[in-house]
Design goal:
The protein has 335 residues and is α/β, with parallel strands linked by helices. It contains 9 helices and 15 strands. It has 2 domains: 147 residues, Rossmann fold, CATH 3.40.50; 171 residues, Dihydrodipicolinate Reductase, domain 2 (2-Layer Sandwich), CATH 3.30.360.10. Bound molecules: 1,4-dihydronicotinamide adenine dinucleotide.
């Protein structure tokens, strides 16, 4: 018995999920697609096998055959589609962000928090990466003692067209915000953004790189380098410093090449190749969880808290000052 899934948004991320669902995820079937670009949705539907196509995401959510929904349309549409899924009582895997503003996230929280069970999961896939999972297991087992500091780097070879300085925080650093909250089990209470000299290779007017300093309610300091014009590849780093040791993401898997007096490993070209296994695990565990009636991945609260911190990071970038994060009270559903 396969879970019958509808996907809203058939762009990059939607196609990435659909292709995986059609080929390598067990117990899942894509039965409906929706996109404002209907011709594109039709092409994707043909490639994925049989799936109905809707121009309106709300019609897809209302389709009786659709048991669960993936929302992979742009961030500004997430609130309305996630709210519609909650109203229809259908589990939804909403790509990040849950919504682009804290007010919109709070409306989703309000709609879900009155329920006895969760319906919403947010697409923070780093929690499914083997490296981060091993770091969490090591930290939770007490191998490095109580955490003090985290050092993170998020480097892309070049930004996509139209990428802005704010998006270096809301689209890139947002992953470090989520994964550090999850690793530490702590909330972030303040953010400061430092701006070193711009790289001469960064597209005008991008402030690239940036250095973000996050403070948690447990007294941990997290520094995140965001550098989207680093030229050499997609490089994600994370080291956690505890009172009695450190634990870090491993170097990239893959072969080590020794040749002509040099020893080297490959740097991934982009986020797809780096995190492909994590995207797979995210989808498979979501499908399995929905079929069991249990949603355990990043919650609407995580989506809200992450957007709240990202918003304050943007404020800190604009003002050059420390911005304080003021979170709402956490509803019981998310304890
Ligand atoms: P995209 O622009 O490639 O695709 C978005 C699609 O949604 C387009 O086909 C567009 O026609 C469609 N669309 C626009 N308005 C719509 C509406 N009202 N209803 C239905 N469809 C609509 O964008 P991309 O890169 O696929 O991003 C989609 C989402 O995935 C974003 O929220 C983005 O932040 C997230 N994302 C997450 C990543 C992750 O690592 N978890 C990586 C890349 C993107």
């Amino acid at each position: 018995m396969a879970l019958k899934i509808g996907v809203v948004g058939t762009g990059n991320m939607g196609q990435y999920h659909i292709q995986r669902l059609a080929t390598s995820i067990s117990n899942a079937q894509v039965v409906a697609l929706s996109d404002v670009d209907v011709e594109q949705a039709k092409r994707v539907a043909e490639a994925a096998g049989e799936a109905r196509v809707y121009s309106d995401g709300h019609q897809l959510i209302g389709d009786d055959e659709v048991e669960a929904v993936i929302v992979a349309s742009p961030g500004f549409t997430h609130e309305e589609y996630t709210l519609a899924c909650i109203a229809a009582g259908k589990p939804v895997l909403c790509e990040k962000p849950l919504a682009p503003t804290t007010d919109a996230c709070l409306r989703v929280l309000d709609a879900e928090a009155g329920r006895s069970d969760r319906l919403v999961q947010v697409g923070f896939m780093r929690r499914y990466d083997d490296g981060y999972r091993a770091m969490k297991a090591s930290l939770d087992a007490g191998h490095v003692g109580s955490p003090l500091l985290m050092h993170c780097a998020h480097r892309n070879p070049a930004p996509p067209p139209g990428f802005t300085s704010d998006m270096m925080l809301t689209d890139s650093v947002v992953h470090e915000i989520d994964v550090s909250r999850w690793l530490l089990g702590q909330e972030i209470i303040a953010a400061t953004v430092f701006t070193p000299r711009r790289s001469s290779l960064a597209a005008e007017p991008l402030q690239d790189p940036q250095l973000v300093l996050l403070e948690t309610d447990g007294g941990v300091l997290i520094d995140v380098e965001s550098f989207v014009s680093c030229q050499y590849g997609y490089d994600i780093r994370c080291e956690l410093v505890g009172e009695s040791g450190t634990v870090a993401l491993p170097d990239q898997v893959g072969v080590r090449l020794r040749q002509e007096g040099r020893s080297s490993t490959e740097v991934p070209a982009d986020w797809r190749s780096r995190f492909a296994p994590a995207y797979h695990a995210e989808l498979q565990e979501w499908v399995d969880g929905v079929l069991r009636g249990e949603i355990t991945g990043p919650s609407a609260w995580d989506g809200y808290a992450t957007t709240a911190v990202a918003e304050r990071c943007v404020e800190a970038l604009e003002t050059g000052r420390r911005a304080v994060v003021d979170l709402a009270e956490r509803p019981e559903l998310y304890d």
